[in-house]
Write the structure tokens for this entry.
Amino acid sequence: MEPRIILIHLLLKLGVAAAVSASLVRSKEFKALLFREERSFRQKVYLVMCMALPIMVGVWIRISVPSFLAGDLSFETALLLGVIGGRWAGSLGGVLMGLPALLHGEWAALPFDVLCGFIAGQLRTMALDKDDIWSFSPFIDQSIFRLIRRNLPTPRLFDWQIMFFTTVIGLRFVQTELSRYFPHSIFSMESPNNWWVWAAIYATSVTAIGIELKIFNGVRIQIKLEEQERLLLHARMEALQNQINPHFLFNTLNSISSLVRFDPDKARDVISKLATILRRLLNSTDSFVPLRDEVEFIDNYLDIEVVRFGPDKLRVVKELEPASLDVMVPSMLLQPLVENSIKHGLSSMVEGGSIYLRSRLSDTGLVIEVEDDGVGMAATQLVESRGAGIGMANISERLQVLYGDTARMTIDSQEGKGTLVRIRLPLLQAMGAIPEGFYEERSTTRR
């Protein structure tokens, strides 16, 4: 075969390797199988079927259309299956990919592919760090440089990537010798008269494996980053969700201490409500709860605050649309808003004041309002207060994390007249984000 034709086939071979691997990683099922460290026998069979069947088709095309040789990637895929799936996956893949060639009369193809898969699987067990498999590169100079750098502080002569590179070259040489001494027993592109074409043939085998691993590893890294982002988001949400002002606990305990002497029954009631609040903070793992549950939590919180400030100084008015109470909202959404109303709006007023809780459904979603008739803020104070303070920053960040730009929180305040915080949320029912059975009929609205 002319060197020019061989080089064209080699380029096409790299393109086929890239196309097959890129097509496979588009499947969620394949990715779930590919990136497992431990697989059951059935999962190994599925992984082999996913990777070997397209190559079987490529072998049939090579046999049926002798002018197209680039589709036969059985040698490279057997090695790839071995290092990814282990010895049995590599051996089984070698059997499947060698069958078409065996039926065509190439009797050495099947045992050779099985041998390649088994040896690659054995190499997988020798990898101390499995990341070395995914980061394999056909550029051996980088591995040699890394080996030298690793051995500078402490001698460590074993390098898995160099060993795998050497194994690929060695097995490819075995394939060359088989085709030389047993013609027509195995398929192999060869050019004995041009050493640079011979070098390109060997380099193509290593590069084809490297390309597929690079494509797989790119998806693997993306999945890991998404998982780390999800874990970070979960940690941030837990920190924000479990945040409660410690001054509330101190003040509540002081109130209980004073009530124990003069009104023991009331003290027991406050302790029970505080225990309910703390139990929810400790046990709640849900990011979303029905608005009804959030209002019940606020009832316990406000009951304690009424005890602290007195029923004549703190009044609570609820205007809750019944249909809105089954809408899912972020857990611990209302408590920081109510706490801010009491702390910054009403606590400094001798005559006390009122807090209004409102909820209603609109055409665009759920509207929640927390309003007080306290001291309010001037325009300059309002601008400075936006995003400031733990409570408001908590709410703002959680809404951004959970909803992005689809949720809004606005603050309107007038000095001497009070403050209104309005939150607009999309309906999670319409988004299909709530499990079936979440919207069961609950108790009637508490007012």
Observations:
- Strands lie at 288-290, 314-320, 328-330, 353-361, 366-372, 408-414, 418-425.
- The domain at 242-431 is CATH 3.30.565.10 (Heat Shock Protein 90).
- The longest helix spans residues 195-241.
- Residues 383-388, 429-447 have pLDDT under 50 and may be disordered.
